[in-house]
Design goal:
heterodimer, A: seven-stranded mixed sheet, four-stranded antiparallel sheet, globular, B: mainly beta, three-stranded antiparallel sheet
C-alpha cells in the first residue's frame, strides 16, 4: 500500500489550493478515504472523508463550505480542494486509507507522508 | 461533542512497561485505535479496535479498554519506542475524534 500526496505549498490568505493523493497497492475503489491534518507542533485533526463511490462526504466544522473532498476511482486518486484558506489551515495534510467496520467504526490503517500547506502573506 | 484526554507526556525506564492512557466518557463502549508518530514521520497504526495489532507491529504493543479509560501498553520499552502516541475513536455525533497525544520518553 502506498499513498503519495502532492499539491502543498505556500498560499496567501483567501487563496486556493488543490491537494492530490495517488494510491497504489490496493483496490482503491473498495475503501473509504480520509484527509487528516497536523498543524506545526500540534496534534492530529480529521478534516474530511469520503465513501467508496463518493456518495457520502463528511467534513470537520471548521472547513465546511471551504473544502471539498473528491475521488477518481479510475485514477486511484483522492483530492482535497481548499478555498478561502486561512492561517489556521496551515498544516501537514495526510491522505489515509479508511477501513470501515459493520458496527459503524472507522480506522485509518495506512497514511501517506503528508504534504505541507502554509497559509501566509 | 466527544473528547479524548491523554497525558501530555509519559516517561519509562528502558526495558520497563509503559502505560499510555486515553480518557473519554464511556470509552469502554467504543472501538479505540492507537497511532505512533515518530519525529518527522507520518503516523503508524499500532493497535486497532482496542486490542488488535496490525501486521508488522510487535507483540510488545497491546491495548485494553474499559469504563472511561483505554490503555496502550508497551512492554520492555526500547529507545525506538520514543514517539508521540494518539488515541482515536469514531463517535456517532462528533465523528472522528483524536486525543491530544502523549509524548513517550524512554529513559
Amino acid at each position: 500500500v502506498q499513498l503519495v500526496e502532492s499539491g502543498g505549498g505556500l498560499v496567501q490568505p483567501g487563496g486556493s489550493l488543490r491537494l492530490s493523493c495517488a494510491a497504489s497497492g490496493f483496490t482503491f475503489s473498495s475503501f473509504w478515504m480520509t484527509w487528516v491534518r497536523q498543524a506545526p507542533g500540534k496534534g492530529l485533526e480529521w478534516v474530511a472523508n469520503i465513501k467508496q463511490d463518493g456518495s457520502e462526504k463528511y467534513y470537520v466544522d471548521s472547513v465546511k463550505g471551504r473544502f471539498t473532498i473528491s475521488r477518481d476511482n479510475a485514477k486511484s486518486s483522492l483530492y482535497l480542494q481548499m478555498t478561502s484558506l486561512r492561517a489556521e489551515d496551515t498544516a501537514v495534510y495526510y491522505c489515509t486509507r479508511d477501513v470501515y467496520y459493520a458496527d459503524d467504526d472507522h480506522c485509518l490503517d495506512y497514511w501517506g507522508q503528508g504534504t505541507l500547506v502554509t497559509v501566509s502573506s | 461533542s466527544y473528547e479524548l484526554t491523554q497525558p501530555f507526556s509519559v516517561s519509562v525506564a528502558l526495558g520497563q512497561t509503559a502505560r499510555l492512557t486515553c480518557g473519554g466518557n464511556n470509552i469502554g463502549t467504543k472501538n479505540v485505535h492507537w497511532y505512533q508518530q515518530k519525529p518527522g514521520q507520518a503516523p503508524v497504526l499500532v493497535i486497532y479496535r482496542g486490542t488488535n495489532r496490525p501486521s508488522g507491529i510487535v507483540e510488545r504493543f497491546s491495548g485494553s479498554n474499559s469504563g472511561n479509560t483505554a490503555t496502550l501498553t508497551i512492554s520492555r520499552a526500547q529507545a525506538g519506542d520514543e514517539a508521540d502516541y494518539y488515541c482515536h475513536v469514531w463517535d456517532s455525533s462528533t465523528g472522528r475524534v483524536f486525543g491530544g497525544g502523549t509524548k513517550l520518553t524512554v529513559l
